[in-house]
Structures are given as C-alpha cells and as structure tokens.
Amino acid sequence: MNIGKRFIEESLELQKRKSPLIHCISNSLAIKDLLKGILCYCGIPLISNTIEDIEKLTYEADCLLINTDILTEQNVNEIERAIRVAFFRGIPIVLDISEVNLSFFRKETVLEFIGRYNIDVVKGTLEEFISLLGEEKSKLLNSETKIKDNLNLRIQLRSFSRKYNLVVVAEADDYYITDGFSEFYIEKQKSKIDEKTDSVVILSGLIAVGISSSYQKEQRIKGVLVAVMTITTAKKILEEKVIEEDKLSIENILTEIENIDAEKINKYSKISYLFVR
Prior knowledge:
The chain is α/β, with parallel strands linked by helices. The chain has a single domain, classed as Ribokinase (UDP-N-acetylmuramoyl-L-alanine:D-glutamate ligase), CATH 3.40.1190. The chain has 13 helices and nine strands. Strand 1, helix 2 and strand 2 form a beta-alpha-beta unit. Helix 11 packs across helix 12 (250-258) and helix 11 (220-241) packs across helix 13. Keywords: ATP-binding, Kinase, Magnesium, Metal-binding, Nucleotide-binding, Thiamine biosynthesis, Transferase. It comes from Clostridium isatidis.
C-alpha cells in the first residue's frame, strides 16, 4: 500500500465532500471535545439527548461511534439496539473500548457486540486490548514492551482483527493499526501536550469521520490511518510552536486539526508498514 501525499489527499477530500453524520454515544464528560473534533474534521456530530433517541439518530447517521465507558447494565439493551440498526443499515461502527479493562461487565458486553455484529474499528489502549484477549493470553503479553518489538502481542492482535474482520487501533508508545493482514506503526512521541490536555477522546471521532467517508469497506483502513496521522501531526505542529504550557488546551489541537492538509501530514507524521500473510 502506497501511503503518500496523494493517498492522504484523497481521504481528506472524501471527508469534505461527504461531511458524514456521526452518531456519538459517549460519556457526558468527554462528549464536548468529541463533538468539536468531529466538526473540525469535516464531520457532523449527532448526539442522543435521551435513550429513546438512540435508534432514531442511528437511522439518520452515516456512522455509529460508541465509547464503552458509558456502558451500564441499565443502558446496554438500548445501545445494542443502536448497534443492531447500524448493522442492518450497513453503516460503519466504531467502538472506543475506553475503561473496558476496569469492569468484567464491560469486557463481556464488548466481546458480545464484536462477536454478534459487524464492528468496523475497535480503538483502545494496549492495556484495554490485552483485557479483551483474555486472562490466559494476557499473561503472555508484556505491556511494557513496544508493540513493534513484541511479536507475540502482534500475533494476538492480528488474530483478533482477522477473526472478527475489524481494524484494530491500539495506542501505546506508538499507534499500532492492523486489519489482520497488514500492520502499520505511526510514531506517537510523548509531549507536554498529552500531559496538559485530555485529547484521547478526539481520535475516535476522527476515525469515525474517516471510515464513513469511504464508499467501500476495503478502503476504510485508509480513513483510519489518515485520522491517526492527523492527530499526531497536529500535536507535532503544536510542539514546534512552543506554546506556553499554561496556555495549552484542547482548542489548540482542534485548530490544527481544522487546518490540516496532506502536505502537513506528509511532513510530520511518520508511518511504517508491514504486510503479513
């Protein structure tokens, strides 16, 4: 796969032309930044004000995005109905498995969703993915090791991706993305921006916009890659601007995302690629 400037331009242009509707089901504490990120990336966010609205908005949307930290025993049935609507309509579904490792209920519910429905992208931290892989497997994985250097971990993540026909986006020292056959590594440098802001939630929205702008499922990996490269580029540009730490905010990152283009991504984002049979 050629991941050059033209590849990036095509993905960004598709988003501008389509302006996809993204139905977001997320924690109320994170929803504000999530919605802003979607808007800055040429998407249009939809949010349910009541449980009763969930199915209705999914019928209208081009993509369903669920942050699993909102899952409770009280709302799981309603959220599953939204997933079922998205599944039967054939629109992409993104699961941000935030805090799935903190609750047995969340872990089992997420695995049921992934097993029953055609989930397109699962995004989370390395620790959260290890939790999904199961207790016995997790003993074999070293979460302190870089994903790139941990062959056993990569095999497990590729197998998970291939088994459920979904794209894995795992965040550790770097971003690791796989569709079960190809592996991508996008450099994620540690910075004062991550220490001063909580920008993790924004990426899920960018991914949702990216994949819902693609007309074929096989092309959705492109939208995922460009979304991850976009947020890493925005942070690197901010680092170069040397903004005073006490002035750093989510708004700074959102401004860079809004002004992103293929030239900036091509310059700042470092990506490597490996095809595995």
